[in-house]
Write a structure and sequence with these properties.
EC 3.1.26.4; 5 strands; five-stranded mixed beta sheet; manganese; 15% strand; globular; 7 helices; Nucleotidyltransferase, domain 5; alpha/beta; endonuclease
């Protein structure tokens, strides 16, 4: 039972999604994907439903089969300036902007988006588990973001980003208590549960 291939009547429909919104460190990353008409793939699913191994197998398949795809990182300094919701939307806009062919319609995972270049769009709650293009975008966003986190892990191995990818695990929070924060941390986020008591 595969995912649906399209929402709109348009041929060039792009799906977009982001990864890393709830992280304490690293970028928020979005991807956008347009598939050719009739594209089907039984394995593509919401990246959260797939193992890391499956995501890494799917990434080159998506990239080879897509009509066009793109991804974009928005980094912590920008996230801290414009807030995480705006940064997530900006990442999606940037990834759509970089597509080699402009979409005629955009489908977005979630319920928040801002118009992009007057292209009609629809926000779809849990869209990454309904539409192939959004699911594919979720896989690309996650794999590109994970690769980035593994890269910066080498610089600051004590936070174990290669494992937690910047998410607020106990280990990550303990490392922040012990070593403080890095240039990759989002300073506008409550990085530790007890922070609001310290900052008064």
């Amino acid at each position: 039972m595969g995912l649906k291939s399209k929402f709109s009547q348009f041929n060039l429909e792009c799906g977009t999604d982001e990864a890393g919104r709830g992280c304490l460190a690293g970028p928020v990353t979005a991807a956008a994907v347009i598939f050719p008409i009739g594209f089907k793939n039984g394995i593509i699913n919401d990246s959260k439903q797939l193992s890391e191994k499956k995501r890494n197998i799917l990434k080159p398949i998506i990239e080879n089969e897509a009509t066009t795809f793109s991804f974009a990182h928005i980094f912590p300094t920008k996230i801290d300036t414009i807030n995480i919701l705006n940064a997530s939307i900006l990442a999606m806009h940037k990834s759509i902007e970089q597509l080699k062919i402009a979409p005629e319609f955009i489908i977005v995972d979630g319920n928040r988006f801002k118009p992009f270049n007057d292209i009609p769009f629809e926000t779809i709650i849990k869209g990454d588990s309904i539409y192939t293009s959004i699911a594919a975008a979720s896989v690309l966003a996650k794999t590109y973001r994970d690769a980035y986190m593994e890269e910066i892990h080498k610089e600051f191995p004590m936070y174990n980003w290669k494992k937690n990818k910047g998410y607020p695990t106990k280990e990550h929070r303990d490392a922040i208590r012990k070593y403080g924060i890095t240039k990759y941390h989002r300073k506008s986020f409550r990085l530790l549960p007890e922070q609001y008591q310290l900052d008064l």
